[in-house]
Specification:
single chain, alpha+beta, Trna Endonuclease, Chain: A, domain 1, five-stranded mixed sheet, 5 strands
């Protein structure tokens, strides 16, 4: 597997541990529906949170969260809608981004709640 793919998986692991440490229950990882994938689906109280994880080894070209495209958001919403109907979820929903930057050997996590609607 390419090094950037390995780093992406490390980023997802880091994001999952961060969410769990902050009271979220991770329900799904890499949930797929057609051409869409949701990195993490978590629950906190009566809210389902669909999480896009973006990991970068540098901010030289911008912050990780800046790389969530309009197309990606559209696909995330499509997959989230499928999940909501499949699980018959009747409560609140939120879309978050967990941005991770590796600085030296340290991973810095930035959690952006309500990143898009």
């Amino acid at each position: 597997m390419a090094e950037h793919n390995d780093f992406g998986k490390q980023g997802e692991e880091e994001a999952m541990h961060y969410l769990q440490a902050n009271g979220y229950q991770v329900l799904e990882r890499n949930y797929r529906y057609q051409h869409a994938e949701i990195d993490l689906i978590a629950q906190k109280g009566k809210m389902i949170i669909f999480v896009e994880v973006k990991a970068r080894s540098s901010t030289a070209f911008g912050n990780p969260e800046e790389f969530v495209s309009y197309t990606k958001v559209r696909l995330l919403k499509k997959a989230a809608e499928h999940y909501i109907f499949a699980k018959d979820w009747q409560h609140d929903v939120r879309f978050d981004i967990v941005a991770i930057v590796r600085t030296g050997g340290e991973m810095k996590v930035k959690h952006i709640e309500d990143a898009f609607y």
